[in-house]
Amino acid sequence: MYSLIDLRRQRLRPLGWLAAAYLAIGVVTRIALLVMTGKGVSPNPLNYLYAFGVGALTDLVTYVYVAWPLVLFLWIVPSDRAAVRSVGRWLAWIGALLGGFALCWGVLHWLWRASFQQVWPLAILALYLLPLPALAYNRRSGRGYLYGLCLALLFGLLFVAASELVFWQEFGVRFNFIAVDYLVYTTEVIGNIRESYPIGTWLALLALAAMAVLWLSRRRVYRNDDGSRFGQRTMLAAVWLGLTVLVTASFTADMKDRTDNNYVNELAGNGIFQFFAAFRSSHLDYAKFYRTLPQDEAYARVRELLKTPEATYLSDNPHDLTRAIRNTGPEQHLNVVLISVESLSADYLGVFGNKEKLTPQLDALASNSLFFENVYANGTRTVRGLEALSLSIPPTPGDSVIKMKGNENLFSLADIFNDRGYVSEFVYGGYGYFDNMNYFFSHNGYLAVDRKDIPKDATIHHENVWGVADEDLFTLALHQMDQVNAEGKPFFVHVMTTSNHRPFTFPADRVPYPQGSRAGAVAYTDWAIGDFLKRAKDKPYFKDTVFVITADHDAASAGKASIPINRYHIPLWIYAPAHIAPRKVERLTAQIDIPPTLLGLLHFSYRSRFFGYDVFQLEHGRERAFPATYEKLGYFHDGLMTILEPGRRVEQQIPNTQTGDADAVKPLTHPLVDEATAYYQVAANLFKHGELARRPEDSTPVK
Fold first, then answer.
1. Is the backbone peptide bond immediately before 671 cis, with ω within 30 degrees of 0?
2. Helices and strands, counts by H and E, the chain
3. Which of 23, 233, 609, 630 is 20 to 30 A from 87, alpha carbon to alpha carbon?
4. Backbone angles phi, psi at 106, to 5 degrees
5. What predicted TM-score, i.e. pTM, was given to this entire model?
6. What is the pLDDT of residues 434-460, one digit of tens each?
């Protein structure tokens, strides 16, 4: 009589093989990532024990999900005779699959308003299930399908492992929200991979490796089934379903984060598990997941924190942040060009100690500009920089406002310029549908101009999947500036570059660095900015133009600390030789402070709901910054980093601005915890309820 012991020895044999293969891949992957991390993980046996011990546990948890295709096969496929052999049974099986798909779609729509576009991957599952009842486990059809399935799973796991190595090289972490974000834009991401790596060779090698492993271990995959019954196999599927529910309810991606070294925590994680955890948290409701204060208290704190000498609240409504900003002297309606440079880390610059001489143009510009030495970015993605520079708000958890629904008609920097007769434009060298940039800017006071607006007869010196070379982007920007100037209007042009991004390719013979290297891309971007300013000097509007140059974010985001502050350090130049005297500014400056500081230099008086400060109006000691990841929200003030995390957790650190390391602070300094909470809570609440929107009265002149 066929027993459960027989079921385990025969039908569960492929599951054991897959588990062994997956755990082995996990160990090899962690060893490779550990080597890539270098000195980021000190040679302490406890670090290795944690990374590999907890890592094995996270791999086993993830294996419960990974093994489901194999579980379905082992459950459905009968031993000796196919279950579906007649037209009637085929129709019944197809009907059951369609009914199951419709039921799942209905439930997901009822719970989360899911559309067909969001649930269509369930159709892949239906296609996978379609042939299974026509197979027999002990026959050639069943064995062939099993080996093919095992080969596909093994290849997929090796591909994920290789992808993690590439992702770690770029970001220093396992898969996270960035990977989820990139998956949406397959054209750019696949194009970037093809241009950066020999993907065909890699795929062939992975396929050969998968076939070799399967061939060498083939006797561990299959054993003849002596007659398992459907009820017994259903018991297996039910147990696996219960196990899946258990691990889903019991394990979260942040449970591994128990050491002070973020690299060790990441090594202990699992890329697949973290990817889907990030996918689920792409829309984090602040009030649901983070520490909060009573609403009135939070708003009262923010109103107090936003008080500056030149600002006056215009309403007694405790939830209204509208202030009249009054600057002395007549407004200077100068042209403004704001350049946000892709991944321009401060440590690439000679003025910050870099010895490679990558940025001679920008280093020289520092002596001729208002140069800010202590600026910190909001985040690690381009959209975070664009959000800070256009809206002057702290970062929201999960998605950037630029990608959220309901982001139209927000109070923006462009609105303030437009009220004064400016033409405001966002000029991008790639296609602006990426990261929802065109939609956001075109619905918030800007004219969106991108790669498709380049004249067909224009000379393009180089282009890759991300966009045209920076020099060609600047040619487009100059063309737009010329047009507006010819109309007799001032312009505000925000230019977003792309060349300093993998695959790091650029026009030949511009800089003495190899193609495909970060050093070459940085040097080329420096050359292109210098060339742009040289060409701009020949324009009649040059002397009445302010050039603001900064970074969207740093080039790297990983470090030992959960928010390594050195990975957020960016430069800022404000260059207008006829109007702004050169000097160095050492004060801590947040990326969201750039818009109000710029407006202050132009002596603009205006209504504001910005969260940023004009640093030249701010009393010393009140400076702060908002470095954040997609789920960890940082507040850097008075030498302390306060970090708000999902699960209403809070941690504080004393960060080292040079190395990014940090020492934990206990007990917590609660005034700073309350300040951080108030800032992030109010910013999220304002957006959620449409209160960041521009109002008609915002155009009222302030005298």
1. no
2. 24, 19
3. 233
4. -60, -45
5. 0.85
6. 999 999 999 999 999 999 999 999 999
